[in-house]
């Protein structure tokens, strides 16, 4: 009997891809001889690099070369050439559903009950909103359960090379940070979740600097440079800004060197957890954004929520400023994790 050939598809953001990683590990453990591939956006593909459970990384961006009639037909041809027998769509789209059908993949499993899944004879897994909410990583594993594979729960892991680790350590030293703890702030989240103001992040940075007498590292995309500058101005302390200066793998390396990452709900928070780095994370409790669904999968995390269940600004919409999470509360949560990590060392 030939080995299984399985494609796992997660075309969205960094955090979503990180939380899908247990799917690869569980399948690899159950089917060690299988050929296992991942299909992701080119932007997030570095998350899968150096992963021992994945045989091939494929990319798909319908807004770029893979889009349009010609690009889509080329992708269908590529998928057909890999002779996959099973495809798991962790985030289904109509385009993907038709691509998988036309690529001749016989077993196709997706989430939800959309009309295009019925039209393409895609097997579906329900996310019944009437049931109690579960974590996103466990929802992902529902598609593995649909393959009749027993689930041995595991947390997400990402894998840095020794060269990447050495380069990150050297970069941090070159920026003048030669003592621990190494504390990171990742203040942006692409406007995808509620978040603190720059002033609050600046106040926290100042408190942490006064306690540990080391400059903090601020990371983020080039688009988040104005936010970083506001935080630096508000803090009034030395801050090492690596905003816009790192590739995704370089960011992973720098996060891997940290003793703590402070952020809202964002992809780098999940990368930190997958690298076993402690996280202090600001969350909104509203359904769909809550830590019950999106918390870092880690036993070294401090999850902070507004005291009264929601912020005064929740009525402005989904991107409130988490104003009811005080700087002092975040500071206390941060120092507890930092001091515990120092004791472990």
How does the SSE layout of this entry go?
Layout: E1 5-10, H1 14-30, E2 35-40, E3 56-59, H2 68-81, E4 86-89, H3 94-102, E5 107-111, H4 115-119, E6 123-125, H5 136-145, H6 162-174, E7 183-186, H7 198-212, E8 216-218, H8 225-235, E9 239-241, H9 248-256, E10 260-264, H10 267-274, E11 279-282, H11 291-294, E12 301-304, H12 327-344
Parallel strand pairs: 1-2, 1-4, 2-3, 4-5, 5-6, 7-8, 7-10, 8-9, 10-11, 11-12
Using DSSP, what is the number of strands? Answer: 12
Order of strands, main sheet, comes to 3-2-1-4-5-6
Beta fraction: 5-15%
- H and E order: EHEEHEHEHEHHEHEHEHEHEHEH
Radius of gyration: 21 Å
Q: Considering DSSP H and I runs of 4 or more, what fraction of the residues is helical?
A: 25-40%
Helix count, DSSP H or I runs of 4 or more residues: 12
Structural class: alpha/beta
* Nearest-integer average pLDDT: 92
Taking the sheet with the most strands, its summary is: 6 strands, parallel
Terminal Cα separation, in Å?
49 Å
Quaternary state of the chains: single chain
Q: Which regions contain 5 or more consecutive residues with pLDDT less than 50?
A: none
Shape: elongated
């Amino acid at each position: 009997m030939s080995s299984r050939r399985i494609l796992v598809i997660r075309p969205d953001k960094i955090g979503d891809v990180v939380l899908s990683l247990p799917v690869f590990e569980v399948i690899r453990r159950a089917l060690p001889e299988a050929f296992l591939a991942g299909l992701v956006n080119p932007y997030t593909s570095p998350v899968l690099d150096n992963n021992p459970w994945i045989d091939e990384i494929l990319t798909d961006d319908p807004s770029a070369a893979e889009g349009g009639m010609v690009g889509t037909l080329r992708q269908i041809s590529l998928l057909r050439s890999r002779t996959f027998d099973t495809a798991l769509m962790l985030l289904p789209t109509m385009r993907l559903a038709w691509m998988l059908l036309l690529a001749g993949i016989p077993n196709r499993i997706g989430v939800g009950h959309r009309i295009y899944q019925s039209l393409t004879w895609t097997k579906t897994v329900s996310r019944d909103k009437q049931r109690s909410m579960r974590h996103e990583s466990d929802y992902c594993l529902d598609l593995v359960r649909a393959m009749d594979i027993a689930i041995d729960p595991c947390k997400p892991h990402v894998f840095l090379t020794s060269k990447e680790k050495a380069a990150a350590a050297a970069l941090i030293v070159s920026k003048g940070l030669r003592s621990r703890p190494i504390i990171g702030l990742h203040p942006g989240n692409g406007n995808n979740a509620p978040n603190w103001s720059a002033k609050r992040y600046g106040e926290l940075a100042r408190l942490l600097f006064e306690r540990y007498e080391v400059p903090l590292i601020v990371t983020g995309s080039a688009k988040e440079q104005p936010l970083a500058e506001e935080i630096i101005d508000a803090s009034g302390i030395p801050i090492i800004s690596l905003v816009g200066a790192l590739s995704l793998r370089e960011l992973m390396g720098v996060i891997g060197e940290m003793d703590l990452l402070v952020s809202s709900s964002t992809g780098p928070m999940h990368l930190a957890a997958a690298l076993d780095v402690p996280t202090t994370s600001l969350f909104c409790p509203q359904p769909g954004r809550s830590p019950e669904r999106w918390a870092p999968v880690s036993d070294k995390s401090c999850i902070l929520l507004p005291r009264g269940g929601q912020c005064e600004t929740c009525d402005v919409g989904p991107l409130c400023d988490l104003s009811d999470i005080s700087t002092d509360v975040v500071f206390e949560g941060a120092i507890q994790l930092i001091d515990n990590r120092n004791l472990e060392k």
